[in-house]
Amino acid sequence: MSATQAPPAQGRSGRAGRLRRHRGALLVAAALVVAVAVVLWTSGEERTHARLDPANPDAEGARAVARVLEDQGVDLSVVRGAAELKRTEAGPGTTVVVTSTQSLGGSTLDRLLAHARGARLVLVDPGVAVTDALGLGAGGSSDPLGSGREADCDDPLFEGLTIEVDSGLSYPGSGCFGDGHGGALLVEHDDVRLFGAGDALANDQVLRADNAAVVLRLLGQDRRLVWYVPQVEDLVGEDEVSLGTLLPDWIRPAIWLLALTVLGLVLWRGRRLGPLATEPMPVVVKAIETTLSRGRLYRRAGDREHAAQALRRAARDRAAQRLGRGASRDPQALVRDVARHIGRAEAEVDALIGPHAAAPATDAALIALASHLAELDREVRRT
Asked: How much of the chain is in helix, strand and coil states, percent to nearest 5?
């Protein structure tokens, strides 16, 4: 009996050994199966990364509000683009909300107002272009709301509620959540409601204070809600929108990445400025050699006038130092003092060191001028 049971035991141990040898490959295969299942499970669900988009599950998205409205029995329709909006019914008994108001141009706003006539229209954080098109003039003014703000209005829908976001936009006119200076976060203008606290819809701020109650009451008054997401492709040439609207979503993180890369390159390759280092000169050139070299250059260039000016300027500097004139730079006064000091005629001295003395016409005349200036220097030094 034991002999007949040995082969099955050996078979089981062989299978166990093979499982141990291929355990890593089996784990990798199981992980791949799970990953594929997750992808297939989530592939049918719409997902974006735009701010306050109902399909954005990130911190600044508004998927939580959209899900809660649907759970409360509101018939929610997310409409993207003007063409899809035209095919969607939006009349009495319907609330139309636009959270991506920065993508609205003049033409798309006109089509929205015409299509949503009779419906309850809510514009979230509209900018200057939208408010100007609505006849409100300047856009909303920035308003810090970190400490919260009470409704303080006659609308019983928001009575006793407090809204709290980092910052918002107050629009001119009377409404709810006023700033005390003639503006409010929620203003109604010609059947259009302007809501300047868009961050209250965000997934990470909807639970602050009474934000959830304010948003649900604002958007859930009707049984049907159309969430319109305008597209940049619907704009025409005359429409005015911000530059950020036209840029792709990846441009901002790409700019930050490029800036960090450049900063890292600067820190890596940059040289720190330290104290100056003194090093011995490899060759010491005597002053006489410099003078002779400059003389050869003057002679080769034939620039006797420049050489004569240099000789006369040096002679005037030495004479001024000998006579104690210091920093005086009046050449004519120096000529008079030198002539008086050595007893020569002023015209003779002026012909030697005067600023307007004639330039030598030949090399011999230049050599003679240098000799006369050396003699003049000796006379000044002797007397």
From this structure: 50, 15, 35
* Pure H helices in the chain: 2-21, 23-42, 63-71, 82-86, 106-115, 128-133, 211-219, 243-246, 251-269, 287-301, 304-322, 331-342, 346-353, 363-382
**Cα distance between residue 25 and residue 34, in whole Å:** 14
Pairwise CA distance, residues 237 & 335, whole Å:
80
pLDDT digits (tens, 9 = 90+) for 128-177: 888 888 877 666 667 777 678 888 888 888 888 989 888 888 888 888 88
pTM of the model: 0.53
CA distance 245 to 364: 82
Decide if 150 contacts 190 (C-beta within 8 A).
no
CA gap 170, 140 in Å, rounded: 5
Long-range contacts of 291-295 (CB under 8 A, 24+ apart): none
Residue-wise pLDDT for 167-208, tens only, equals: 888 888 888 888 777 788 888 887 888 998 888 889 988 888
Residue 89 identity: E
Please state which of the ranges 273-277, 283-287, 298-302, 305-309 shows the lowest mean pLDDT: 273-277
CA atoms within 13 A on the CB side of 338: 31
Instruction: Give CA–CA dist 372/383, Å, rounded.
Output: 17
pLDDT tens, position by position, 351-367: 888 888 888 888 888 88
Which pair of structure tokens corresponds to residue 196?
């300047």
Q: How many CB atoms lie within 10 A of CB 368?
A: 12
Of how many residues is the chain composed?
A: 383
